[in-house]
Amino acid sequence: VTSNDDNLPVVYRAPQTPHELLAQLELYFGLRYPRKACCPDHTSPADAIIEAYFAKSPIIIWIASRGFGGKTWALAGLSLIELISGFDVVLAGGSGEQSRRAHEAAEKAWGHSAEETVDGKLEAVTAPHWLLANEPRRTWTRTLMGNTMQALTASSRAARGPHPQRLRIDEAEECDVEIIDALMGQTMVTDPRRPAQTILASTHHHEAGTMTELLKRAAEKGWPVRRWCYKETLCNPKNPGSWLLPENIASKRIQVTGRMWRTEYDLEAPDEGGMLFAREALEAMFSGAPVDDGLNQVCLFEDPVDGGDYVVAADWARKVDLSVVAVVRYDVTPPRLVRWVRCFRWPWPKVVKLYNEWGKEYHAHAIHDATGIGDVINTYLDIPISQVTPYIMTPASKVKLYLDYETAVDNGEVEWPALNSLTELHRAVTTDDLYGSGHPPDEICTLALAWQIAGGKRTISRLHRPRGL
Ligand SMILES: Nc1ncnc2c1ncn2[C@@H]1O[C@H](COP(=O)(O)OP(=O)(O)O)[C@@H](O)[C@H]1O
Ligand SMILES: [Mg+2]
After folding, report:
1. How does residue 304 score in pLDDT terms, banded at 50, 70 and 90?
2. What percent of the chain has pLDDT over 90?
3. How many angstroms separate the CA atoms of 319 and 463, rounded?
4. Separation of 101 CA from ligand 1 center, angstroms?
């Protein structure tokens, strides 16, 4: 393609070598990608882009850390170079959010300009708008050669549209497998010099989700799987193109649970039926000698003190005949369990009476599971209404409840006396019990409710997407 800007013909030549590819990405779009792999079995983002552009395999999977992998930016850069090289490209985001990020990355790349020394002279270099038939659009850009790049959200409608040679699916985990299949069915080679190539990029966080299925197929069909994590993108003078500032890693690590960190950032395979808490977290949580607390045994650890802040929490018996009531003092760090009882087969009025008494004795803030029977109980509470938090369990609020607690445990903020009821339960509880089809243990529910108040502002949560919710 030639341009007659300023009457000077400019010829564009698509990259022929890996070096030219990376050089053009940087020169035209200001995009640089880490060159080196730092972990065993990982691939550098630059090598992954090279492999995709030169279509070393027709289908390749990329798995990289959430946010820190730079997958969306890698796919955007790859798509742009492919567009100006004459390929029809579809960049499909697994969600509207991913597409939005891809649009942002592409917009930024098209706005790139820099000064370069060419033949000893300083020249302004901008993104190659002169190759385009129209100004870049968010979802749709056409070149003078007639090929297009479409950046859209993966959907069944999208899957019925174009016939690209290059298909880039971003956050495949968030797509239905059927849609990915339909999109893959649309790829088409019209010119043997332009081989088809598909990238399925994602984090992998659901044990029974789309990525698990795609990885299974990769194993069966021999599709390469390329992985990288934040160690590849972390700023490092020895790794040209690395961009991630280390502060981001430290702050993210305390915001997410250990389980999320392991799967979404360290790329361990998700194990959703697995134990919720790591052994180290459990060891840190239970201090002191073991306490044998039988059913119906009231454990009194500390009397109320003036100026102490207390929360009384309850999970009312339902299918299981167990109500659990706890008082936690939270003006101290870490918060302390000061009273505890597991009421087996107590009539509700008896449990409510105890809850009211403890609440008054400690001038406590009261929180309880106010769903179902709790809604009725709420009207029998003898505690000033301003001090009561009736916690309604919805799928989302239930996830928040347990995610806040899990995060706090992982961060070492929770310490309880080594009650036998608690040590065993925390050891045995699975992610499925709290976030899946299982039943959350009443004891953990009560403590998690207490934590909603006792954890205060330190507790950060974000809604994760456990299966089935
Ligand atoms: N190659 C890069 N160079 C500089 N910054 C980058 C690069 N890739 C990603 N980033 C930065 O990291 C952020 C997250 O990248 P993104 O591609 O959205 O990650 P992912 O898709 O893996 O979640 C981007 O918004 C951008 O600020
Ligand atoms: Mg992304």
Report:
1. very high
2. 67
3. 27
4. 9
Question: What does the block give as tokens for 17?
Answer: 């070598």
Indicate which residue's Cα is closest to atom 24 of ligand 1.
70
- 265 in contact with ligand 1, CB cutoff 6 A: no
Residue owning the nearest CA to atom 11 of ligand 1: 70
Q: Whose CA is nearest to atom 14 of ligand 1?
A: 67
Task: Please give the distance, rounded to the nearest whole angstrom, from the Cα atom of residue 258 to the centre of ligand 2.
Answer: 21
Quick: pLDDT tens for 402-452.
999 999 998 899 999 999 889 988 988 988 889 888 889 999 999 999 999
Question: For the segment 169-196, what is each residue's pLDDT rounded down to a tens digit?
Answer: 999 999 999 999 999 999 998 888 899 9
Q: What is the pLDDT of residue 421?
A: 86
Looking at all shown ligands, the one closest to residue 98's CA atom is 2
Is ligand 1 within 6 A of the CB of residue 136? no
Å from CA of 407 to ligand 2 middle = 23
